[in-house]
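Assemble and predict.
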Amino acid sequence: MQNMLTLISNVFRLGNASKNVGAQAVSELLIGLSKYVDLTAPPAPATPRQPPLPPGTRMVVSARSFADFTPQASFPIKKCDLHRLEEGPSDEALLTREQGLQYYRTMQTVRRMELKADQLYKQKIIRGFCHLYDGQEACAMGIEAGINPTDHLITAYRAHGYTFTRGVAVREILAELTGRRGGVAKGKGGSMHMYAKNFYGGNGIVGAQVPLGAGVALACQYQGNNQVCVTLYGDGAANQGQIFESFNMAALWKLPCIFICENNKFGMGTSVERSSASTDYYKRGDYIPGLKVDGMDVLCVREAIRFAADYCRAGKGPIVMELETYRYHGHSMSDPGVSYRTREEIQEVRTKNDPISMLKERMLSNNMSSVEELKEIDLEIRKVIEDAAQYAISDPEPSLDELCNHIYARDPPMEVRGTNPWVKLKSVS
Amino acid sequence: MASLRSFLQCNFDILRKTFVILFVNVRDALNQAMDEELERDERVFLLGEEVAQYDGAYKVSRGLWKKYGDKRIIDTPITEMGFAGIAVGAAFAGLRPICEFMTWNFSMQAIDQVINSAAKTYYMSAGFQTVPIVFRGPNGSSAGVAAQHSQCFAAWYGHCPGLKVVSPWNSEDARGLLKAAIRDDNPVVFLENEMMYGVPFELSEEMMHKDFVIPIGKAKVERQGTHITLVSHSRCVGFCLDAAAVLAKEGVECEVVNLRTIRPLDVDTIEASVMKTGNLVTVEGGWPQYGVGAEICARIMEGPAFNYLDAPAVRVTGVDIPMPYAKILEDHSVPQIKDIIFSVKKVLNM
């Protein structure tokens, strides 16, 4: 059983695994499973005879076997409010067991990773800015589930969740937060400046990422590659002038850009009512159609982004989405987050609306997984996070030789002035 | 008439090839450079206000939209922050944009995108994300356009690591440096000068070659001299040469250095010149405080050339005021040839 779960997790683990490895892992899974279950056989009898277990296998308490779980189920999801659209996404979402486990694993990893970052920050091992994403996991996971790895994504500074869903390993994220050479940006970027293939950060200036995202979409259109760019911003950024400039050009030129406002109700300490004359962020694109989506429901987000991506790929131009979500932490680690909202409010969201709990509930009540299986996954994730944190703490800081590197790309080495005229530092590309 | 024109055209081509020198003004040099680079690499495209159907506010992009069409020559709305950001994003995703600011004064609306999104990204990403973009447009004073349209941004952008900042003077500079800038994988700020657009210069056959590039970061000694070094960039290089011609009649031989690039600054060429002549005057159109000349003087102080100075280095700059409108006031707000001559004589104690 343990080996099977490992094999399943190998297949669906997000991280640095490429699609080729994924296919390979699926083959391994099938070969591995064939030792336990004849895949072409009729469903197992009520009390299956257990085959001899390989040495060293941990016994799972429950006797449920793989074939007992429901392979897929359909869930009703909240209907989206529509702006300038005749039809919206479906109000029903199909979830397979594999998808459910994948989403659970990913969201739980992001949750645990952010909590670990919180811990490391309080221990002063992480310094500077640290904007945590816990509570908003369904947004990152739902979006990634609905687009292709070849599509593009750009967001603002609350970026750790997206850095993970876009393919960067937890250890590289945490090591970047602790400023070590093993960090995804070699320790030179920090929390807000992590990059990966088709992921353009991580941007510190509120709103600046939106024209950038529209530009990426322009490149997609120019190159005719049928890709889209998901461009995220918050409710606080939603009033930025450059966002409206981007709306204008994206609509004018029909850029394949999905503008997404992650509305977590607060721009730092300012509630949406106090910052925005109109809080209907999905309508702020005016002439651009919009959808308002339950951002705490990963299936809702997935269906909406699929709808939006189809819309853009059809050449209809940009679309705006508002994801209603919530952050458990304050704006950043220097904000306790309770001066502008009540602890009761935060607690209420945790108990009634938590994205991970919602998914877990759905899967358990439809027999798509078991408490034990999910607990297994939790334990695995905990190990991954612990290992990553250990790495992030023990990895050395960047060498001082790195200080002046990466000023210019593809240039011969040059000299950079140090803090005084006698210090001449070397810079290579 | 058509046949006469084609007869002349035919023979002009022969004449052009026979007599290897051609007179090309700065505007046409820029235009041809962009044309050739657009042809060479399909990832290159131009965007900005009026660049397409209007043929360019200053006609620098004349004919390009007709030749390349909407996809590659894009008219933008008057939204600098938005379109500069879009240009940078396109560069992130693999294109090679040329982003035109109608004048560099308007770049202040977009300066966050130039500095924070373009200049710093390669460093912040530890070499993962390149930004192969050129921002270009006319910089500095013009004629009668008053305070908000006359500022020089060489010092502003020259201050920032991660940017390359280039300031051509003549057609050779314009052509070679623009080609180099477009082919460079880094963000380049390309500071043109509106008053130079219509000025013709000789271009040799070698310079007309489609792969003619001038290395960014290398200054050029335009005139050899022995008594004093004049360092300048953009339009003021011409003033320095004029001043040198006048001074030569009085027996003073000025060495004129055309910076060509503001950042990275070619200190080696300046130092070599100062060590030869023993005197330095910098000349620029921008304001004095924290300017290009200030940087050059500081570097000379900190380097080996200081010991060769016979007198303190001095700066000739624009007057430290917003640009006035009335012609008499405007004329007295910018460095003139007589100011350069006066400063040289002061430095040489004549």
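The CA atoms of residues 2 and 259 of chain B lie 45 Å apart.
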